[in-house]
């Protein structure tokens, strides 16, 4: 069933759609294990059939984005999420027994995982398939009804998502709402049982404010400046290649892309040379290279160009990597891989999340200085460390706080379904993926079942010696 854009993209239409979903949930109750498996299986199979179409749609929305990048970072992780949920769903749904303690035996207690009911999901533009379907799979696994708002900045992909989900599910179960920022603002103000948002920290604040009017719980997957620490004992060639890949994948338009590197001062020039060589190996040409992604919109391109101009005017050392000598690629909205060497901390590129193929590189003399630099800034969504010795690695892990961590690589923790994915503080609230995704969309309901022997009779009035002896015993334990 195709979603009618005009019907749902008004405050009244969205409110009515949510009311329909709420009535359906109340009338039909929580879906069974078999129903949930069938829903996720249908979604998985439909995505497989449309993988090439999604790759083409995302590339059209970006201007140029490698088909392989969409398959690797959008389609495959979504299929992995479905596979993982199908494999573990029965165990996630099982009631979990909880010890009751000696004083309440032989009673029993358990935790029931129940669907929250009606969930809203707001999707960003940078990975418009994965960041729609991965939380959707978690919400369906938990037994919820879902309204999904894709980004207006990826209209072809959003239309394809709407068409696919409209064919798979009735609107009372999964509905897609299409529209711009005004629609998104109205969507965030709906009284969902849970609201899931992926996007910038600035927009996340507004989403949380809107949700607070209804006391709607939120999961916010935001971003921030994710550091990449090159340890004193790191293999520089290996580290530079892997950092370059993480920085330049999708032209850096990744929420967990390395946003700055911290490199030992005496190894700076070696790292710069190794990074330049790695970038040239990954992308021997830029302008007409279908592997090298465009900046998604003119506004994002202008922001990055302006930030680089500010750095240039401040006298920062800029290393632009153009393997085939391409310089002006404004028509293609492409920016050459760029290193910013020891830039001042007040530059835009050092204050704000970059979301482009640009990597500031700061130097340090002792690892303590690198740790202090990270801790002086808002907690990031990701952290990367390169080094051989476990002692240095563990010092960085124990003395910093971030969302997720990958050691001696970049980006990889996001594709492990068994790991929670989410930020901390300014980089996000809550986590999902795998069982954490099931739990974030579930209500963990505590249930106590009184046994045949009522031991609490010892604790009821009238209070006398027996009560005093019993409470004294319990308090001495």
Give an overview of the whole structure.
With 477 residues, the chain is an alpha/beta fold. The protein has 17 helices and 16 strands. It has two domains: 5-222 and 428-444, Aldehyde Dehydrogenase, Chain A, domain 1 (3-Layer(aba) Sandwich), CATH 3.40.605; 226-422, 3-Layer(aba) Sandwich (Aldehyde Dehydrogenase, Chain A, domain 2). Helix 3 (33-49) runs antiparallel to helix 5 (67-93) and helix 5 (67-93) packs parallel to helix 6 (130-141). It is globular. Residues 1-6 have low confidence and may be disordered.
Task: Give me the secondary-structure topology.
Elements: H1 5-8, H2 11-28, H3 33-49, H4 51-62, H5 67-93, E1 96-98, E2 108-115, E3 118-122, H6 130-141, E4 145-149, H7 155-168, E5 174-176, H8 181-188, E6 194-198, H9 201-212, E7 218-221, E8 226-230, H10 236-248, E9 258-264, H11 268-282, H12 298-313, E10 317-320, E11 338-341, H13 348-351, E12 358-364, H14 367-375, E13 382-386, H15 390-399, E14 404-407, E15 428-429, H16 434-440, E16 442-449, H17 465-476
Parallel strand pairs: 3-4, 3-6, 4-5, 6-7, 8-9, 8-13, 9-12, 11-12, 13-14
Antiparallel strand pairs: 1-2, 2-16, 7-15, 10-11
The percent of residues in helical segments reads: 40-55%
CATH topology of the largest domain: Aldehyde Dehydrogenase, Chain A, domain 1
| Low-pLDDT segments | 1-6
SSE-based structural type: alpha/beta
CATH first level of the largest domain: Alpha Beta
Number of helical stretches of at least 4 residues? 17
Q: What is the assembly state of the chains in this entry?
A: single chain
Biggest sheet record: 7 strands, mixed
**Computed CA radius of gyration, to the nearest angstrom:** 25 Å
Domain module tally: 2
Question: How far apart, in Å, are the first and last alpha carbons?
Answer: 62 Å
Could you tell me the number of beta strands? 16
Gross morphology = globular
């Amino acid at each position: 069933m195709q979603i009618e854009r005009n019907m749902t993209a008004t405050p009244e239409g969205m409110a009515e759609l949510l009311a329909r979903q709420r009535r359906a949930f109340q009338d039909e109750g929580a879906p069974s294990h078999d129903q949930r498996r069938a829903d996720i299986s249908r979604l998985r199979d439909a995505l497989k059939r449309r993988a090439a179409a999604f790759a083409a749609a995302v590339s059209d929305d970006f201007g140029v984005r490698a088909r392989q990048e969409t398959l690797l970072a959008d389609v495959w992780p979504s299929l992995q999420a479905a596979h993982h949920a199908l494999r573990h769903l029965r165990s996630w749904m099982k009631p979990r027994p909880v010890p009751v303690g000696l004083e309440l035996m032989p009673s029993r207690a358990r935790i029931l995982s129940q669907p929250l009911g009606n969930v809203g999901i707001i999707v960003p533009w940078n990975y418009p398939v994965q960041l729609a379907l991965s939380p959707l799979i978690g919400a369906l696994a938990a037994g919820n009804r879902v309204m999904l708002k894709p980004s207006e900045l990826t209209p072809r992909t959003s239309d394809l998502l709407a068409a696919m989900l409209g064919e798979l599910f009735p609107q009372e179960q999964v509905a897609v709402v299409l529209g711009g920022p005004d629609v998104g603002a109205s969507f965030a103000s709906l009284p969902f049982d849970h609201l899931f948002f992926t996007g910038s920290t600035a927009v996340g604040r507004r989403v949380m404010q809107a949700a607070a009017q209804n006391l709607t719980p939120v999961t916010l997957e935001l971003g921030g400046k994710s550091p990449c620490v090159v340890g004193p004992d790191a293999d520089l060639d290996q580290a530079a290649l892997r950092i370059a890949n993480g920085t330049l994948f999708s032209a850096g338009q990744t929420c967990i892309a390395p946003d700055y590197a911290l490199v030992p001062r005496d190894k700076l020039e070696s790292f710069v040379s190794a990074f330049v060589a790695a970038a040239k190996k990954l992308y021997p040409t830029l302008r007409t290279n279908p592997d090298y992604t465009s900046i998604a919109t003119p506004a994002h391109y202008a922001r990055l160009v302006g930030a680089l101009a500010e750095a240039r005017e401040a006298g920062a050392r800029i290393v632009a990597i153009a393997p085939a000598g391409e310089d002006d690629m404004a028509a293609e909205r492409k920016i050459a891989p760029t290193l910013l060497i020891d830039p001042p901390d007040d530059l835009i590129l050092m204050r704000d999340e970059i979301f482009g193929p640009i990597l500031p590189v700061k130097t340090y003399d002792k690892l303590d200085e690198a740790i202090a630099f990270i801790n002086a800034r808002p907690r990031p969504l990701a952290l990367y460390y390169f080094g051989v010795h476990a002692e240095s690695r563990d010092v960085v892990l124990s003395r910093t706080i971030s969302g997720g961590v990958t050691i001696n690589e970049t980006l990889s923790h996001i594709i492990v379904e068994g790991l929670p994915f989410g930020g901390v503080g300014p980089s996000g609230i809550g986590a999902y993926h795998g069982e954490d995704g099931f739990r974030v969309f579930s209500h963990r309901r505590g249930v106590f079942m009184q046994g045949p022997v009522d031991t609490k009779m010892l604790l009821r009035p009238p209070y006398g010696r027996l009560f005093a002896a019993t409470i004294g015993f319990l308090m001495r334990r």
